[in-house]
Design goal:
five-stranded parallel beta sheet, Rossmann fold, alpha/beta
Length: 141
């Protein structure tokens, strides 16, 4: 059974809804899922998982949340990530999702294998929720 970690930061609830759907998809595919808000997460949650999903809304200047998510993500810059499967997800309001593209490049530089991403404008549609669930299934493979 694959271990999937889902770590996210959410303010308005949109990122949390995406995290829940990714979790449902991974569980349906048979994975053991560890889902946490970033303030409760530890580096070991990621390093001990077979696959990971990180979620954040786009904040100021098209960046992930800076007070909790950014410091957590930064810890992986110097760790060996060995091509660990990663999905990135989040929501945005004004930047057309550029933050997810920038975040993808960064995580590849950190040694992750980014196998999918999902950026939704404001709140997710039913189609986007279905895509989130599908991303969870892919992580569990």
């Amino acid at each position: 059974m694959k271990k999937v970690a889902i770590i996210y930061w959410s303010n308005g609830g949109n990122v949390e809804v995406l995290a829940d759907h990714i979790s449902k998809g991974a569980k349906e595919a048979g994975a053991d899922v560890n889902i946490k808000i970033v303030s409760e997460a530890k580096v070991e949650d990621v390093t001990s998982a077979d696959a990971v999903a990180f979620g954040s809304p786009s904040m100021d200047n098209n960046r992930i949340e800076q007070l909790e998510m950014e410091p957590f993500i930064n810890q992986f810059k110097l760790l060996p990530n060995n091509g660990k499967k990663l999905v990135l997800f989040g929501s945005y309001g004004w930047d057309e999702g550029q933050f997810i593209k920038d975040w993808t490049v960064r995580m590849k530089e950190y040694g992750f294998d980014v196998i999918g991403d999902l950026a939704v404008k404001e709140s997710p549609s039913n189609d986007e929720l279905a895509k989130a669930k599908e991303l969870g299934k892919i992580l569990a493979q």
